[in-house]
Specification:
The chain is an alpha/beta fold. It is built from 7 helices and 10 strands. It is globular.
Length: 236
């Protein structure tokens, strides 16, 4: 069973060597969207503060808020990229992160090599990646380009490969930063179908978006973030 539980979770980023001038503090706060504080004498950006969330199978949570409100930081915390500075975080079930599908792609490696690399990073065994490789290649539609270095790919080709890899396995928990768009017209239809299947089969969906229409369509719960804090929770 899929489960996400955050109890009084905070995430702080230390800024070593930061001065105390109000100008520098103001600039740091405006760039990060968080709040500045002190932690054992070190200036920290309080990216998330006192977050309390509990999600179970069937929950579709939308994250809304201005740029820098903490949506992406919260997604990365749920993905395990950031470790909470305080509070308790529990997660049960496999996780698929579509926060940034091209993150970690090695441009000097071939498409085939990247399938193996990304598969291993996603927690799959070499045997499982080998089993999925042909299907990933076929879905991407890259043909013989899968044997060429990724640096020779167009942006659309890169997105095809990244999307095909990221959606090749079904996970209990799906994390998304905006609805994934591959930007390739001839690939869009089957990519949209694949995305719908992945979302429908996931136990928990957490989706950050600036689109009220998308949030209302896909989510049954909504959290509004401001400066790393939950200021409102509601049903759309």
């Amino acid at each position: 069973m899929a489960l996400i539980s955050l109890k009084n979770v905070s995430v702080n980023f230390p800024i070593y060597g930061a001065g105390a001038s109000s100008l520098r503090n103001t600039l740091a706060a405006s760039v990060t969207g968080g709040r500045l504080g002190k932690e054992t004498g070190v200036t920290v950006v309080q990216a998330l503060h006192d977050i309390n969330i509990e999600l179970r199978s069937g929950d579709r949570l939308g994250l809304v808020g201005h740029n820098g409100a903490g949506k992406s930081t919260l997604l990365r915390t749920l993905a395990g990229v950031y470790e909470p500075s305080a509070g308790a975080f529990e997660r049960q079930g496999t996780v698929s992160s579509l926060i940034d599908p091209v993150l970690g792609i090695e441009v000097d490696a071939s498409g085939i090599e990247n399938i193996m690399l990304r598969g291993l990073v996603m927690g799959m065994s070499r045997k499982r990646v080998d089993q999925l490789t042909q299907e990933i290649c076929e879905f991407s539609g890259l043909g013989e380009y899968v044997h060429m270095p990724v640096r020779t790919y167009s942006t659309g080709m890169l997105m095809r490969l990244a999307f095909a890899i990221s959606t090749s396995v079904q996970a209990d928990i799906l994390l998304m930063d905006e609805w994934l768009s591959v930007g390739d017209a001839e690939f869009t239809e089957k990519a949209e179908k694949r995305m719908r299947e992945v979302v429908a089969k996931s136990g928990i969906l957490v989706l950050a978006s600036h689109s009220p229409e998308l949030i209302a369509k896909e989510c049954n719960r909504v959290i509004h973030l401001e400066h790393g804090r939950i200021v409102e929770q509601q049903s759309p």
